[in-house]
Design brief:
Elements lengths: L4 E5 L2 E4 H23 L4 H27 L1 H6 L14 H18 L4 H26 L25 H22 L6 H17 L12 E2 L2 E2 H18 L1
Antiparallel strand pairs: 1-2, 3-4
Helix pairs in contact: 1-2, 1-5, 2-4, 4-5, 5-6, 5-7, 6-7, 7-8
């Protein structure tokens, strides 16, 4: 049995999910500041950007979850929209929010869009890894039943299940390591890291989604693929096209 609550004071609960999300943002902040300074961007500008980026990530991720994945639940329990610490954020929505914020901020401050996006995709990949661990501790988005040695017994679920949240956590961390290494040892054209991030993330996400056991009323399914897989396929094609350009 996994206890998802780190500690509680009366009705107030602090969950591991929230702590992991905060840890991801803290590490992301320091990585962004370090990389930004190497590009000659002032710390004050990067701090402003990080503030708006955090808002864009959280709002985009939550709205996408509410509108596309579990609208009926949140429509019936509107106050739950604000209970982010309980889980329920969509990474594709976070990407849309981050993209829009980065585009707006780069125009506002006369910074090349790819200069900022190449900086931010690396800490975003790391933060995504922590959030997937939070999904595992929350016992949400569990995998299909399996008899493999990797099977895990989740509370309130029958049989052993693929810990798909950990599969995706490892993939996101691998994405972080690849991008970090490429940035450090290989000089590339601006924008390459951005589209490599989308290509790696979407490819990993597409294949690991096959291990998930999602109810048919969660988002939508078409031709045996779920919503996340269709978005991932689209991003894979766009990423390949942009990398070829």
């Amino acid at each position: 049995m996994i206890n998802s609550v780190f500690f509680s004071i009366g009705p107030l609960e602090i969950r591991y999910y929230s702590l992991l999300m905060v840890l991801g943002f803290i590490l992301g902040y320091f990585i962004l500041i370090k990389f930004g300074r190497e590009k000659g961007i002032e710390k004050s500008v990067l701090e402003d950007y990080f503030f708006y980026l955090a808002l864009g990530l959280i709002i985009g991720a939550r709205l996408f979850e509410v509108l596309f994945y579990d609208f009926q639940y949140y429509f019936s329990n509107p106050i739950k929209v604000f209970y982010i610490w309980e889980g329920g954020i969509a990474s594709h929505g976070a990407m849309i929010g981050a993209f829009l914020v980065t585009f707006w901020f780069s125009k506002k401050n006369k910074i090349n869009f790819y200069t900022l996006s190449d900086l931010v995709v690396i800490p975003v990949a790391l933060a995504a890894s922590f959030i997937r661990i939070g999904n595992f501790i929350n016992q949400e988005l569990v995998g299909r039943v399996t008899d493999s040695s990797l099977g895990f017994k989740f509370d309130n679920y029958s049989g052993l299940r693929h810990p798909v949240q950990l599969y995706q956590s490892v993939c996101n961390f691998f994405n972080f390591l690849i991008l970090f290494g490429i940035r450090k040892y290989i000089k590339l054209k601006e924008g390459t890291l951005t589209w490599l991030f989308f290509l790696f993330y979407s490819s990993f996400r597409f294949f690991t989604e096959f291990f998930k056991d999602l109810p048919l009323n969660y988002g939508f399914f078409y031709l045996g693929l779920n919503l996340a897989q269709w978005f991932s396929l689209g991003l894979i094609l766009v990423s390949i096209y942009m990398l070829r350009k």
